[in-house]
Design goal:
The chain is of the alpha/beta class. It has 8 helices and 11 strands. The protein is about 30% helix and about 15% strand. The protein is globular and about 60 Å long.
Length: about 325
């Protein structure tokens, strides 16, 4: 089971809604959303998952973004009827009141730091146990959580300081920056986990707002011949200033399309990848937020396809 950990930015929320509406993610995908600000799109996603009877986790005590600072207004945009699973960061301003009205096996916990294992005793005293517990690859945390149903949480995306820096990543035989992304989907069960989690092609680091990039980079994951997930970075060439983002997008996208055309017999087409390729053939530029949305959609749909046994279309 895959638990993509997302920060609730608009393009992430729209990606989830479109995937679910089109039936492109199923029972094997349970998104965990850490809300960063209130928005109507956030409410729509919760309602969409409820209408499809699909599981969704919402972090009650986010540690990034403006949402956590608006305590007096928190959850004003949540649906009146609760139809999602609470998730609790066991590192951030925890007290027993946070577990009021929470039943055992009907919430998720997230342990990110070894010192937070002291909170396991609090859960025991309250006689409640999470349905799922996300943890990093840390033996101390894993030992302390005993028989909890654990999910391995990693930041698989090696984020560069600037988009142009992805050109420094080791390249494949065609000169495209290419690197390992994840093999947790292959080994999580034998390593004692019930699922795996990551921050997709976005990474754990959170920025409140973006900025005009000098280079445009499109990040696309794919399965190699051993079913290991790798990631390619398609980067623009004219990276001297911030002018002409549409032209830079076209340069990066042309590299992606050329790679796809050479390898399409070994690849699974997703909705996100299909839309990116359509932008190339139409000569359109949807904006960088949409580019991130489509790359995210591609990743989530691809993992869903793998977990469903790689069915033929």
């Amino acid at each position: 089971m895959y638990f993509p950990y997302l920060r609730g930015k608009q393009y992430e929320l729209i990606a989830l809604k479109e995937l679910l509406t089109e039936g492109l993610i199923g029972e094997n995908i349970i998104p965990i959303i850490e809300p960063v600000k209130e928005s109507s799109q956030f409410t729509k996603v919760i309602e969409c998952f409820a209408s499809k009877n699909k599981m969704l986790g919402i972090i009650k005590n986010p540690e990034v973004g403006s949402y956590k600072k608006e305590k007096d207004n928190q959850r004003t945009l949540f649906p009146t009827k609760k139809n999602y699973m609470d998730a609790i960061l066991m590192d951030n301003e925890i007290d027993e009141k946070m577990f009021d009205n929470i039943e055992t096996k009907k919430f998720s916990s997230i342990f990110k730091r070894p010192d937070s294992i002291k909170l396991v005793d609090m859960l025991s005293s309250l006689n409640i146990q999470p349905k799922y517990t996300l943890i990093p690859d840390d033996s101390r945390i894993k030992r302390a959580l005993g028989d909890f149903d654990k999910v391995i949480l990693r930041d698989n995306f090696v984020k560069q300081k600037r988009n142009a820096d992805y050109l420094k990543v080791p390249k494949d035989t065609d000169g495209i920056p290419d690197e390992f992304f994840s093999d947790d989907h292959l080994f999580f069960k034998e390593e004692g986990y019930v699922g795996f989690s990551d921050y997709s092609i976005i990474g754990e680091d959170y920025l409140e707002s973006g900025f005009a990039p000098v280079a445009v980079a499109i990040h696309i994951v794919y399965f190699d011949q051993s079913d290991v997930l790798r990631i390619k970075h398609f980067v623009s060439d004219s990276n001297d200033d911030i002018n002409d983002p549409a032209g830079k997008f076209g340069e990066a996208l042309e590299k992606l399309v050329n790679w796809y055309e050479e390898n399409k017999k070994e690849m699974h087409m997703t909705e996100g990848l299909s839309q990116l390729i359509n932008h190339f053939h139409l000569g359109t530029y949807p904006g960088l937020g949409v580019v991130k949305k489509l790359s995210l959609m591609h990743h989530l749909e691809l993992v869903n396809w793998y977990l469903e046994g790689k069915p033929e279309l």
